[in-house]
Structures are given as structure tokens and as C-alpha cells.
Amino acid sequence: MCRWLAYSGAPILLDGILYKPAHSLIDQSLHAKMGVETTNGDGFGLGWYGTHTITPAVVRDIGPAWSNRNLQEIAGHVRSSLFFAHIRASTGTSVQQTNCHPFRHGRWMWMHNGAIAEFHRVRRELALAVDPELYLAIEGSTDSELMFYLALTFGLEEDPPEAVARMAGLVERVGHEHGIEFPLQMTVAVTDGQRLWAFRYSSQRASRSLFYSTRVETLRSLHPDLEFLREMSDEARLIVSEPLGNLPGAWNAVPESTYGVVQPEGDRMDGFTPVPA
Amino acid sequence: MCRWLAYSGAPILLDGILYKPAHSLIDQSLHAKMGVETTNGDGFGLGWYGTHTITPAVVRDIGPAWSNRNLQEIAGHVRSSLFFAHIRASTGTSVQQTNCHPFRHGRWMWMHNGAIAEFHRVRRELALAVDPELYLAIEGSTDSELMFYLALTFGLEEDPPEAVARMAGLVERVGHEHGIEFPLQMTVAVTDGQRLWAFRYSSQRASRSLFYSTRVETLRSLHPDLEFLREMSDEARLIVSEPLGNLPGAWNAVPESTYGVVQPEGDRMDGFTPVPA
Amino acid sequence: MCRWLAYSGAPILLDGILYKPAHSLIDQSLHAKMGVETTNGDGFGLGWYGTHTITPAVVRDIGPAWSNRNLQEIAGHVRSSLFFAHIRASTGTSVQQTNCHPFRHGRWMWMHNGAIAEFHRVRRELALAVDPELYLAIEGSTDSELMFYLALTFGLEEDPPEAVARMAGLVERVGHEHGIEFPLQMTVAVTDGQRLWAFRYSSQRASRSLFYSTRVETLRSLHPDLEFLREMSDEARLIVSEPLGNLPGAWNAVPESTYGVVQPEGDRMDGFTPVPA
Amino acid sequence: MCRWLAYSGAPILLDGILYKPAHSLIDQSLHAKMGVETTNGDGFGLGWYGTHTITPAVVRDIGPAWSNRNLQEIAGHVRSSLFFAHIRASTGTSVQQTNCHPFRHGRWMWMHNGAIAEFHRVRRELALAVDPELYLAIEGSTDSELMFYLALTFGLEEDPPEAVARMAGLVERVGHEHGIEFPLQMTVAVTDGQRLWAFRYSSQRASRSLFYSTRVETLRSLHPDLEFLREMSDEARLIVSEPLGNLPGAWNAVPESTYGVVQPEGDRMDGFTPVPA
């Protein structure tokens, strides 16, 4: 599948998160430990919010992240207070820029690890459920992008947890109608540039791994020697497919069937249940 | 738009047709004379039939043809009796491999120059008209590939002229329903590996240019000095978006609203009229 | 050959210079007017200085600039007070990232339009003249990068005009020894992040075009309606291979055999003569 | 490092060797078992001899082999009696087409797994030892290509084992002069289209793995059920970095410090010792 990382906190040089940690996302592109595949070399993407526009920049390319110099250049020179990074292991759809995460719609970004089971069998029916106006904006052929546009159709911009739950409910109903026992497997991150939501769910209740970082304050006291922690602000939060290194005390598993939101008014987690469609 | 070339005849090294003529297709990628755009640098494709399988090989890439070494290597070492080559100038959809021509389905290949007018407005409705089983095979986001799958839906494998006419009729009906005056502009080549059909049509009756080559026998007597003519068999036929060089007597315009078929039992041309959908 | 653009001034969104002007550099990638080639589609590069490091970021890719989404994303989200942009038309060497401009060494950047005549004949001898320590850093196969490393060998970091003059002198001597009448054709931009030098020279005294922008203050009074001028600071200066649009009064040709420097202590121009090697 | 494969025998569809075996070279691009790296995703190359020219076709690209559709298309449609395939894991030099193997010079092809130790320190001196006429043809920045041009300088076209031994001797002498204990690590394949030589050597006498296939006749009797063996001719020979699957009896290690030649007059092996330079 894939690996991803979402950061929210004080502005930080992307490099400090993307490249410097021991088991960084870039390292995971070659040597993922907890994914279905150890290699995530089928493209990558980086999306970040700056200070001058509310729309994020999204840079995506089709080669492996580990050898991509442009990614390294950007990471070494761009600072952001909210960014997504994703490395892809294709589950069958083409290796092309429009299939790389994150996907963007207006000020929103979406990225995904997982799959809609037997996607080719349900793709057309799910595509028909997308709002016709939104349908025009679909550029690629992945299940992930389609999930985004279904969530947008179901009101993502107003109520993300509800919209994602309705999307999941639709995917499950259509899958079941096609005799697919476990239609959905997902860890999703979505943001509007202010708040960041992360979802962990699968029909089988055996979801891909997802972790959030411990409060930076706590971490710094545990690991006073680590440079990249010193650069992180107190309220900084990382959500990752798998831990960036083996830092004791640093990473907490997001429970099964749960979503969390990182926001100025305080982070919180809640249960996640698809809304039957 | 784009430029394309289709060859049918005795097996020939692709290079002799693709690179050697004075105003070759590769030259047209930089300096097209009759197209809407002089530069066709948004990807290319090459499809050829060999002697061991009935399915053609299709090689496509996203950079300009003029600098692509792999294309040159293949053209310099592969011989074929029936091949398509296409250079793309995107009319808006992504520059990605799955948007490059020719498109293939089973033993069939399809390539196109032109556009469905205001494609984004009619794309969803046209996509819905594709046979659900065929829909699964659509990989890219172009109007050209969608036209192919509509034609397949309408029986391309049984009666190409009829299927293309029904496709054109549907595109025109849907376009007109959206208030689009001239919905379709196309020159299309399609083949099953045995016969080769070419269509020139536009709703406005102002279609992109299309030419077929004069009988090789005649050409050779006109131009006894030209090497690439000596390598071509008597029955060889080229259909091209614009002439390969200024060879007097070599190229004949396909008339407006016309299709032609190149086949063992003798080539012929006929009028083309969309079948109202 | 190529086209390039260098900006120095108050921090500005790159997009305002790269994409918005009528005949922007991106437009020139498809439709250059004053170059040897109208198409500059063999790769591109962008180098910019940020606020947190003295080393510039350099992003380069091998496809045409006109269709590159990542370039557009970066340009739409990155601000800089000093940046280079380059679009390439290969004069024969490979289309690959390491042959794209700008080239970087430490805090220095270099870009070039032109050619060393019959480069293959003199390449080895010129390469031998590069300082062995610097030689290790050469990654590509262009004349442009080799010129950069020769200039570095000759003291670019201490005295750029002198070092470039010695480089030019060496190229001319070696060329003449090989019977090449006019060994060098160049417009070069080079910067250390503080000052920006631009050189226009050719052995034949028929150099590629080079222009610098009129004082912004003057321009704004001439063209009060132009948005991108309002975003530029008074001291902002553009140096370009060809004018960005037909703005009357905006562009001044750099004279033959001349170099200029843009710097805080005041811009100035001076004659350029190679130092015989 | 890398993995490679060389085939010599009756003409065969490349696909049968490249993709169909259980642990094919394509599978090794993701899951190599005996290499230093398990992932070989930094480009690939394919070179084959056809029936109409003595110069081989060489197709190379920079993405991973495992997801490259063009490679699959070519492999599925091209037959050859002698071909090389290579998947790359960069040891530091750029991921670019000109750094992908095989390298070609006239009718000769060369590919390599291994490295010149501390290449950056000896690169310039080794480059100077290349015949100036040949030097012009070097396009990339790898140690592998430089080894090829050194071997050409030392008479590869007349006596391959002698030329490779002299190249190895030079690399060792220059390395030792720079205080490098074990300057060379290599498995090399080289061919002129008629004969195929393979070398296994390292200064440390701990060379990368290299295997040759058992006589096909013998293999077929051992494994009468295997389709790809039925398609291979009696005299067919494969030389591979690591076995294609676990077929008992199929693969024989090339001994340390040994080279072999596959040729019409009978294959043979002999010891390999660098010629002191």
C-alpha cells in the first residue's frame, strides 16, 4: 500500500521531518517495516500550506522518493506549519502524477493508505455517486481520489467526520452488493489548512497501522538530545503510517475504528463508524 | 492538437517512415505546419503489430518525441507491416502515459487528432454511455480514449464505420443538448491488425487535415531517387495528419466527411455521416 | 539554444514573474521569438534563495516547462528576492536533470544560453583545466556546466568578471588551437545570493540577445495598470534572454561584449573582454 | 548494487526470460535476495540484437523496472538470440538515462554490477586514461561506463579478457596509489553480438554473486513441466547475478576470479587476473 505523514505545528523546515529522523518517510520508501509492501517506490507527493495563500502547494512525481532530488531541494528550503507527505505503492492503478497523493480540492488536501477491495468492480457505481460538478475535477484513476470526491460530495467541507463516514458507508454498501465481504481498508488524512483529521478504519476491523506523536514537551524531556524535537513547537503533532524511528514514548497507536482531529482548540479522538448508505 | 501517422504495407523498419522523411513525424513534433499548434511535445506513442502475437505492442511516454532515445532505438530495430505513431499536443488533460495515443483494446488500436468541444461539460454523460464492462478498462482522462470506448460499446469490433458513426452521433447529440454548436472535431485511425480505417469529420465541416499516400508504384516512378520509397512495397499505404515532406504527387487529401479503409481486398473510401443517437 | 531569466529585488511570488507576464518565460518555452529555436522544451530549472539558508534551492526537470505542474505549484507558493529560471533547448547533449540549468556550487548559481562551438572536440582538454577538487562535482555533460567549473577554477568566488574572462579566454585559445574560428557564444548569469552578474559575449561579436529591465519606478509611471509591476520593489531588476512582452520602455539591450552587476551598492555595466589564456 | 541477466541462444521472446520465471529479474527489482540492496529501482536497461543490424537496440529508463509498461510491451513483442537486461541500484551517481546499463559502443554492449571503491577520488585520473577519441563518447557519470571505455581503450574489440584484465589492473593501481585497499568489485558482461563474456572479480576476492545456467537439455530432463525451458534451445545459456527462482540443478556459481565465454565454438571458463598497469 502506501505510507504517509501529516504535520501540524509551528512552521518547520520540511527536511527536519521528512529526511532527518532515523526511520524517516524517505527511508520508508525503501524499507517500510509495517506496510504490506516494504517498497513504496511508485511515486510520491508533498503538499504544504504557506503564508500567502490559503490553497496548498502540491508537488507530486512518479519516481521513487528516495532518489528524487527535487523533493530534497524543496524539503531543504520550504517551511510550513501544516504539510502532508505521501509515498505510494500502487495496488494496480497506473504510476502517474494524477494518481499520486495528496489530492487537492480548493483549500482541502486528502491522502490515503489502503484500498477499496476489488475496486474495478465497484469503480463505475461509486463514480456515479460523485456530484456531477465535482466529477469534472477527478483527474486520476485511483480509489483514493474517488474516496476524496465522494467525501466532498457528502459534505466534507462542512463536517469531515460525517462526510467520511458517509463515504465509507457507501463504499461498504456497494461492495456488499457486489458480494465483497470487506469492502474498505483505509487510513486517511484530510485538512483544510486549519484543522487536520485522521481516520483509521477497515471493514474487517484490521486496519493499517496509524500513529500519532506524543506531546512534544513530553518527548523533549524524554529525549533532550534530539535536534528535530528542539525545532518542533509544543503543540506540534505528527500523524504517521508508521513511527519515524524507535523513539521510546514517542508514538501512540490510533485505535481501531477511530478518528482524531488536530486543531487550535485542542486535539481529540472519537470513534468512527460508517453511516449506512 | 496532435499529429499522427499510420502505415500498412510490407514489413518495414519503423525508422524509415518515422525519422527519415524530410518532414517526418518526429520533425512535426517540433515544427508542425498544418496543425493548430506547431509544437506537439506532450507525449507520444507507437503501436506496432509483430509476427508472433495478434496483440500489438504499444510504447508510450510523456516527454517530447524529438528527444526520446528509446523511441529512436525501437524505430531503428523493429520492423512491422502495420503500425501507428502519434505525437500529442494536450488540449488540457494531463500529460501522462495513459493519455498518450494509441490506445489499445485487445487486438485493436485507436488514435485521434481533434477534440470533443467543451469536453469537461459532457465527459460524465459520455462516460455513462460506455458499456460497464468496458468502462473498467479506461485508464486515462482524454476525450480520445473515451471516444474509443464509446465506439467499442457501439460495435467497433464488428463494424467500425457504423460504430464510429454512432459514437460521433452520440457526441453530437450530447453536445447539442449542452448548447455546444460544434461538438466534434476528429481525425481517427483504428485497426484490428488486418485492416486500417481512417476517419475525417467535424461537426463544423472544417476538419483537421488528413492525407493518404499515392500508390507507391506511381511514387517510385515520380521519384526514383528516394530511398525510403524503394523500401516500401507496392501496396504500402500511409495515412498522415500532414504530408511527410513536399514530395510532389505523393499526398492526397482525404475529403471532408469521409472515411477510408486500407485492406487486402483493396482500399476504398466512402462518405461518413454520424448516426443520430 | 535556451532562454533564461534572473530576478533580484524585494521578495516576490515567483509566479508573478514566471507565468503572468504576456510573453513569460513559460510562454517562451513554446514560442520563443528571438532564440535560435522557437521551442525550448528540453528541460528547465529554477533556483531560488530563501530566508533560512544561504544555499539556494535548485529544482530541475527534464520535460518541457509549459506542462510541468510542479513548476507551477512552486512558482505559485514560493517567494524569493533572488532567483534564476532557465528553459533548455539542447544543442546535442542528453536531456537529463544534471544537464539542466541553473548549476549550483555552494552558495553560487550559474546559468547559460549559448554554446562552446564544436564542444565534443575541445571537451576533454577543457575538462582537464578544471581544478581536480572541483572536477569531482561535475555531474552532467554540458558545455555550460563545464564553463561554470572553469570559472570556479579561475576564482569565480573572488572576482566573477575576472574569472569569467579567464574562462572565456581559455575556451577561445583551445578552440583556436583546434581550428575553430568562433569558439564561444554565451550569455551567462551568475550569483552568490547577494549580487548578480550577467555577461553577454561571443567570439564573433554577434551574441545572443540579452536585456535588463528599466527601473521599476519609471516603468510604473509608464504603465500604471500593470499588476505585476505593482508587486515589484523599486530596486527590482530583471535580466532576460528576451523581453517578457512588448511593454514599451521596459527593456534595454545589454550591449555586445558587456557585463553588468546588480548589487545593493548600485547596479553598473562594464565592457567584457576575455583574458587570453 | 545492481542485478543483471544475459541470454544467448535461439531467438526467444524476451518476456519468457525477463518476466515469467518465478524470481525473474523484474521480481528482483523489488525483492533481490543476494544483492547488497533488496531494491533495484534506480533505472533499468535492455539491449538486444535483432536480425537486420549488427548494432544492438538499447532501451533505458530511469524509473523502476517493476512498474514500467514500456519494458513489458517490448519484452512481450521482441525476440532476440542475444540480449542483456539490467536493473540499477545507484551507489551515488545520478539516476539518469545515461547512467543506466547496458552501455553501447558500436556493436558492443557492456553491463556491470559492483563498484570502483571511492570512485570520486579516482574518477579524474581514470578518465584521463581513456583514449581521447573514445572519451568523447562518454555520456554519463558512472564508474561502470568508465570501466567500459577503459576496456575499449585497452583493446576490448580485439581481446576482451586481456582488455578487461588491463582495465582491472589500472583501477587497482590507481586505487592503491590513493590508499584504497580494495579498489575494484565487479561482475561484468560484455558482448559483440556474437560472443558473450562474463567476468567475476573483486580486489578482495569476495565478489558479487554470478551464476550460469546448466545445459538446457539437462534442465529439461530435470524439469519437464517448465514452459520457459521448452522455449529455450539446447545451446541457450543464461548468466545472471542471482538465480531466477529455486530450480534445483539449474544454476552454477561462476567461481571467484573467473571469466567465461559463451560462443558458437563451445563455452568455456578460465581464471581472471588483472594485468598490472
Automatic annotation (TrEMBL), chains A, B, C, D:
Its EC number is 3.5.1.118. InterPro entries: EgtC-like (IPR026869), Gamma-glu_amide_hydrolase (IPR052373), GATase_2_dom (IPR017932), Ntn_hydrolases_N (IPR029055). Residues 2-277 form the Glutamine amidotransferase type-2 domain. Gene3D superfamilies: Glutamine Phosphoribosylpyrophosphate, subunit 1, domain 1 (3.60.20.10). SUPFAM superfamilies: N-terminal nucleophile aminohydrolases (Ntn hydrolases) (SSF56235). GO terms for molecular function: hydrolase activity; transferase activity. The keyword Transferase applies. Keywords: Glutamine amidotransferase, Hydrolase, Transferase. Pfam families: GATase_4 (PF13230). The keyword Transferase applies. This is Glutamine amidotransferase.
